[in-house]
Amino acid sequence: MIKCAIFDLDGTLVNTLSDLGRATAYVLKAFGTEPKWTDDDYRAFVGNGAKKLLERAFEHKLTDEQLNKALDIFKAKYNEILIDNAYVYDGIKDSLDKLKDKGIKLAVVTNKPHFSALKMVESLFGKDYFDIIIGAEENVAKKPDPFTTNLVLKKLGLLPQEALFFGDSDVDIYTAKNAGLKSVGCSWGFRSRECLLFASPSLIIDSAYSIAKLF
């Protein structure tokens, strides 16, 4: 019996692409680089955390010291504009409300910095809507490492077979596999259906309204 639904955040629950792109462009300009990336570029850059996003946007040309400085600038700017354009995908709230009515535990596991993730989720869904929210923190392994997913299971006292992992990217699918969970690819997010298929999820759904039908 499935007792918990674990969700990625960006591209799965919430469309955050516009503000991620704006914050990245701000950092590029701060370093004297004229932004040239499109939404499609940013869609390919995200998924592995803010540091990787910046590495890709700067085409891996920054020193470690510069990258850390860029990351600090990015975090400050992104937290300032965090929910300016972000929105919950159609069907998400409807499905999650149905899961809550069934007593299913809800968790968020994301590579977004923890403070930003917490602020975003609480702003868009309300405080305590999710049972657990785990974002990225310094010196803590990020997805696709299973550490944060395993932490959710441990806190809820659940076995891997009692949870489903929902995500829009190959990173999420590999995270689920590494933690021993079945994975559900969400095709409405930042990665293509082909990318999801290549990662071999347990199944793929094309509408957020389908989430509740899996329980």
Keywords, please?
globular, two-stranded antiparallel ribbon, alpha/beta, 215 residues
Overview of the structural elements:
The protein is α/β, with parallel strands linked by helices. 45% of the residues lie in helices and 16% in strands. The protein has nine helices and eight strands. It has helices at residues 17-30, 39-45, 50-57, 64-81, 92-101, 114-125, 147-156, 170-179, 193-199, and strands at 4-7, 14-15, 87-88, 105-113, 132-136, 163-167, 182-186, 203-205. The strands form two sheets. The chain has a six-stranded parallel beta sheet with strand order 5-4-1-6-7-8, sandwiched between helices. The protein has a two-stranded antiparallel sheet with strand order 2-3. Strand 4 (105-113), helix 6 and strand 5 (132-136) form a beta-alpha-beta unit. Helix 3 (50-57) crosses helix 4 and helix 8 runs parallel beside helix 9 (193-199). The mean pLDDT is 96.
